[in-house]
Amino acid sequence: MSTKDLALRIWGINCLGHPKEVCRFVSNQGHPTFPEILRNARNVFKSKTNDAKTTECVLSLTLHSILVPIVPSVDCKKLISARYTFDTKAALYRLRLGAFIQYVREELGDECACIITEFGIRGAATLEDIINSITQNYPGSFLVFLLPPDQFTIGSLQRAIDMLIARNLVCQKKDIATYAREQDAELTAQSVTSRPTRGRGGKSARGGRGGKVNRAAALAGEKEWKDLDRPVVKRRGKTLGDCLELPGKKSKDEWKRGNGVTRRPAPKEALSAVDSERKSMLFCVNIERYTCILQQQLILQYVEERLNATSRKVLESIFTVVGIAPHARTESSAMFSGQQAFSRLQSEVETTWTLFLKHLAALASPRVSCLSVVTPCDSALDATGGEYRVNYKGVMQLIVEDTIAAFVEVGNAEEGTEREQRVCASIIRALIKHKKLDEQEIANICMLPEKICRSSVLALLNDRFICTQEVPRKPDHSTQTTIYLFTMNLEYTVKNIIDFIYVIILNLRSRQKVVVMKHAVRAGAKDDK
């Protein structure tokens, strides 16, 4: 089973019916258009649904980044012109949302946890919609640990949102909605500047009449262009940006009508340029940032286990200098000097300059490969302490190798005895160190009998921990004369382990769903009695 199929099945447990069928169709079809999605929904659900429900479902999945719209060209910005693809990464990232909310609650408080939860429900929304929803709906039945609603003021929620944006835990949704708004602005600017004005073209720019468009003429031209093109825009339909913002605007307008709030336009002088721009932006949770935070914590734990607690403190001071990695696959950080890290460390740990340089050398050693040296430190008299980079790629590779060996060694009690698991782990470590080995070399390095070595290698091949490479001696590729080398591809092994873990998660969630349904049926039967 591929990773996409696993993500589709895991996502299908959370969303049944219409969203599940739309995700399945988009995943199997590849890059279908919106009319193709509508046609498939009509064929599957017949009279149980209509095009409005399908459109709402597609928009909701797009806001959650499960479906990603793809624009074929720059000029195509209508909903009917886009194709959609199923984002496997975003679907699997949804599994971390609960841990992400718990992390935000422990680090930043309940208000920030409410905001992250609301973003998780809506997918993407404007900040004003999030604040209005929290003040109305919390505490809900799904969050019993939150404070009563009178504890959440608009000012405190705005400060919490600013804190989340500053830490990049909430970011602007970079999708086709933003792209469509930018295209609308560009088309408007081009149409205004292309219309003739009454300015004298012969004057210089200093006098303000050298072919420049003054403000009154620009506003008049923009109004005239909008009045002329309004029927055409109405016939062509809404843009993707308008469609994606429709659910948020609709809910906000309904809330205002229900509470008797009249729309009063705010004075233009009271709104700054940043506030007016943020009001129209769609924001979403940045689970990629949370993944980078988990990666940083894993590196700190690994350094503490391999070296000591002081080396962990040194690495923490380095992370305060370089910050968190922007992406989970970042290979190295920005360059920093030893003096910068030492100045941060002095406020927490009392240590000498010479001992600090020894810790830097230990972090840069091949044992942990946590730092890569850019400019070496010649002696303790060097005031800069050398220049370094955090080697994310090197240290994560060591962590992955140790994790794979430990995963094989622990294993499952039903798959083999403890001795067989240790033998397989020793073979894994030998292949990690020597890259490519044949069966005889593996037996010699691991000091194993040939029979036990052969059975262990075959078990690792069946479980897809290692792979083979053929070295033919003759052009006919005969199996009698071909040498088979065993090697370990980290990407191949990690992918198979992740798929195995996702299967476990899928089984647990399926079992959880069955148990919840049984309890619901029993509770309903007791209520009937």
UniProtKB/TrEMBL annotation:
Keywords in alphabetical order: DNA-directed RNA polymerase, Nucleus, Transcription
- Specify the domain of life of the species encoding this protein: Eukaryota
Among the Pfam families in the record, one is: WHD_POLR3C
Its localization reads:
Nucleus
Gene3D superfamilies named among the record's database cross-references:
Winged helix-like DNA-binding domain superfamily/Winged helix DNA-binding domain (1.10.10.10)
> Which GO MF terms does the UniProt record name?
single-stranded DNA binding
Gene Ontology cellular-component terms listed: RNA polymerase III complex
Which segments constitute the DNA-directed RNA polymerase III subunit RPC3 winged-helix domain? 421-487
Please give the residue ranges the record annotates as the region Disordered.
Answer: 187-213
Record bears the keyword Transmembrane: no
Give the principal location in a single coarse category.
nucleus
Which range is the signal sequence, renumbered to this chain? none
Which family is this protein grouped under? Belongs to the eukaryotic RPC3/POLR3C RNA polymerase subunit family.
Query: What's this protein's function?
Result: DNA-dependent RNA polymerase catalyzes the transcription of DNA into RNA using the four ribonucleoside triphosphates as substrates. Specific core component of RNA polymerase III which synthesizes small RNAs, such as 5S rRNA and tRNAs.
Tell me, how does this one assemble? Component of the RNA polymerase III (Pol III) complex consisting of 17 subunits.
Under which name does UniProt file this protein?
A: DNA-directed RNA polymerase III subunit RPC3
What is the organism of origin for this protein?
Blastocystis hominis
Lineage, highest ranks first: Eukaryota, Sar, Stramenopiles, Bigyra, Opalozoa
